[in-house]
Design a protein that fits this description.
By secondary structure, this protein is α/β, with parallel strands linked by helices. The protein contains 11 helices and 8 strands. An 8-stranded parallel β-barrel has the order 1-2-3-4-5-6-7-8, surrounded by 7 helices. α6 links the parallel β4 and β5.
């Protein structure tokens, strides 16, 4: 059974935790889907795979190209695609065109937009009215890296109140779920209890309705790990050893 946005909301009501991971290609997407991951995010953390320093250089074309490959590998999970930096902030019309292209060209079921400030809330409301499912994202928003840095957000009472109010405004605008990134656990709990829609945490404690991590991080493929990621295996080491063994055998004419 393919996962739907409505199902995620039902799972929150039932207290069933939501499992989310990222994917950028067919092979990984197929593996995640076969394992039973509920939500696959084609995140603009694609920047890491493409060798960029931040998420800012990722283009809509690059995102669509990778999202198509991911979608081809998925039968059951809900596929959500990040809209890249400056492909939706300029105007409602720009956001509509970018989101429309993603859904039409990739077959993904939803898009994710960062931020909960008034203009973004208005944009999201219009997208939802047009029939485009939207996932929200508050707290640390990586596309604002030059403004916010990569430090934890919402630590002061004022900052926490602002993030809570943004989350409420996004729910009222019609998002089906919200990513809470790198905020204190007590704030994530407060938001989770306040909202009817599911919260998906990343570095936001254990009280969210689900968790998402970058797949490269949990597999030990990333050069740098964020402080809130957990490494479940070390594929960098495994791949390095395999390639070294292969190289030795080829050079010694042991293979084939």
């Amino acid at each position: 059974m393919a996962v739907t946005t409505q199902q995620l909301i039902q799972w929150k009501q039932q207290g069933r935790s939501i499992v989310a991971l990222t994917a950028w290609d067919y092979a990984i997407a197929q593996l995640l889907d076969a394992t039973g991951v509920d939500l696959i995010l084609v995140g603009d953390s694609l920047a890491v795979v493409l060798g960029y320093e931040t998420t800012l250089p990722v283009t809509l074309e690059e995102m669509i190209h990778h999202a198509k490959a991911v979608r081809r590998g998925v039968k059951n999970a809900l596929v959500v695609v990040d809209l890249p930096f400056l492909t939706y902030q300029e105007s409602i019309q720009q956001a509509m065109q970018s989101a429309g292209r993603v859904l039409k060209e990739t077959g993904a079921q939803a898009v994710k937009l960062e931020g909960g400030y008034p203009a973004m809330v208005e944009t999201i409301e219009r997208l939802v009215q047009a029939g485009i499912p939207v996932m929200g994202h508050v707290g640390l928003t990586p596309q604002s890296v030059h403004q916010l840095g990569l430090r934890q957000q919402g630590k002061s009472p004022e900052a926490g109140e602002r993030i809570l109010n943004e989350a409420i405004a996004l729910e009222q605008a019609g998002v089906f779920s919200i990513v809470l990134e790198h905020i204190p656990a007590h704030l994530a709990l407060q938001i989770t209890q306040k909202l009817r829609i599911p919260t998906i945490g990343i570095g936001a404690g254990s009280d969210c309705d689900g968790q998402v991590l970058v797949t490269a991080d949990i597999l030990g493929l990333s050069e740098k790990q964020p402080p809130f990621a957990k490494v479940y295996t070390n594929l960098r080491e495994t791949i390095t050893k395999a390639v070294q063994n292969y190289s030795v055998e080829v050079r010694d004419r042991q293979f084939p």
